[in-house]
Amino acid sequence: xxxxxxxxxxxxxxxxxxxxxxxxxxxxxxALSQGGCGPAxxxxxxxxxxxxxxxxxxxxxxxxxxVVDGLDRLxxxxxxxxxxxxxxxxxxxxxxxxxxxxxxxxxxxxxxxRLMDLGFMDYDEPTEYYGEVTRAAVMLFQRQNGLNQxxxxxxxxxxxxxxxxxKYYAVSNGDQGSDIQRIQGRLYELGYLASENLVTGNFxxxxxxAVKKLQELNGITQDGKxxxxxxxLLYSDIVQPNMLVYGEKSDVVLAAQERLKTxxxxxxxxxxSYGADTTAAVKQFQSRNDLVVDGYLGPSTRQALNSSExxxxxxxLGDQNETVTRIQKLLSQYGYLSSANITxxxxxxxxxxxKNFQSANGLSxxxxxxxxxxxxxxGSNPRKYSAGSGGSSGSSSxxxxxxxASLISVAKSKLGCSYVWGAKGPSTFDCSGFVYWCLNQVxxxxxxxxxxxxxxxxxxxxITSFGNLRAGDIIxxxxxxxxxxxxxxxxxxxxxxxxxxxxxxxxxxxxNFICGxxxxx
Length: 521
What we know:
The protein has helices spanning 17-33, 46-51, 106-117, 132-144, 155-162, 178-189, 205-217, 228-234, 251-262, 276-288, 299-305, 322-333, 348-360, 371-377, 404-412, 431-441, 507-511; strands at 418-419, 428-429, 461-463, 474-477, 480-484, 489-494, 499-504, 513-518.
């Protein structure tokens, strides 16, 4: 989610402009009929009368001047007011007075853009469709501004949203809703809420205390409210948690290290000290277990770590670290990989080499280096490459499960699935959850990142020019992320459409482009 403020003109205010023009036109016509134009029109005439005493001589009015701006001839009793009803009325844009869910109007795009700018709706290319996501954003705005929370955009709601002084999204003690539950969940993850049963969706005293503690430890204003600054902090990579972190030493850390070692995430000997190796192991565990990757041993991470369903470590497509370099050196040593491909990045070439090694050594050929494959690679008698064992990998030719075509195919298979903030699949997604799920389905072991996290992921080839994007790339725009498809199109989970869509990558994408990431090739 992107949290920004903007100072832009309010185009939606033209909604009522046509009505004002009608009144002005009628008033102008009436003024002309009562005494002509100029600053003296309609003013008392006693000064002129006093300077020119005597009988007043009526001035002859030319025949062609007796019709003024659509009115009938002036009469002895004044203008014919009945003709006002026949004045032409300028056409409006066609929006109804109330906009409800399921309707589609041009103005909805302006409405969505304004809600995005104010932080009530995830950033995306605006659409004309007033769907469930837009309605939910409107209801949040209505709640914050003391309006009837019906999700219907009527005159009072539209006026408040389009007001240049409209306030950015903020919540405080007494508010309730699904957005509060998400905030509480993150506070729990960071150790500011003591127990999971406090994640209720009701912003009470405990939540206010947790927010104040977060603000205190992170050096921002301690008002107990979650506004723009606090919301940005909650999901940033610089937030200070209230939990076990780097530099601490305890039996709790030791127990976590031993579990990480058992699951194959830790390569050093557990000692109870939370150092760089522990942080790296925790991050790797979080990325494999659908957790926020922050390197902290928070409540949810410890719970997942001790669960019987904890996913063990495995190195695979998309990984980039020293462990990958070590694996590539071993594969090269045994003849499965060219030395030129020892890069530290686990790409398609390395995946193919791993599959060949696994096949030759009686292992399941999934292309991922798990505990068994690692044990065989580092053992004393692995089988070396031979012509019949699959071939040495020296280039990235050929199509594999993790190819760009496979990624696009998986992405398109989810067209029409609902957009839900924070969802990671398999049937509901937000924009970053959609990219995360699709990559993992084709074997790319990518951890969950927010759209802002995708701006600096770093381990893939970075594309800095919009024109250089190609099918299979990940495109990052301001507050949003998607998967580039064929012929200048993109597949993404769209908040504006309320679902996963396949659409043209038009001017909005170009104007908001930040970077792209090439996963394959």
